[in-house]
Amino acid sequence: MATAVIPSLLRKLTNGKDQISVSGKNLREAIEDLDRQFPGFRNQLIEDGDLKASIAISIDGEVGTQGLLDPIRANSVIYFLPAISGGI
Question: What are residue 20's DSSP bridge partners?
Fold first, then answer.
């Protein structure tokens, strides 16, 4: 199974867990599996059928380019990266 690394801002949904095993062939299926395990997780990542603009995804060290269709392998590591706002 793939591993989803959960950022601190979303750990309230995973009972404090920072890594979760997920199944799926692509990012959409992995997020759906996360939502099955932790209801409400999907709502934090997806809006209008696509990833929220405030979330970036890294799979195996590569920034995703296909959105929810990015492929996932059994040993993949998925990072959910909330956007950092602010500036000068």
Answer: 4
In a domain, 88, yes or no: no
Cα 84–Cα 33–Cα 53 angle in degrees, nearest 5: 25
CATH of the domain at 28: 3.10.20.30
User: How buried is residue 35: exposed, middle or buried, by Cβ count under 10 Å (0-12/13-18/19+)?
Assistant: middle
Q: How much is the mean pLDDT over the chain?
A: 92
Are 25 and 71 within 8 A, CB to CB?
yes
Q: Distance (Å, rounded) from C-alpha 72 to C-alpha 69?
A: 9
Residue 78 domain flag? yes
Hunting for tokens 């696509």 — which residue is that?
50
Is residue 62 over pLDDT 80?
Answer: yes
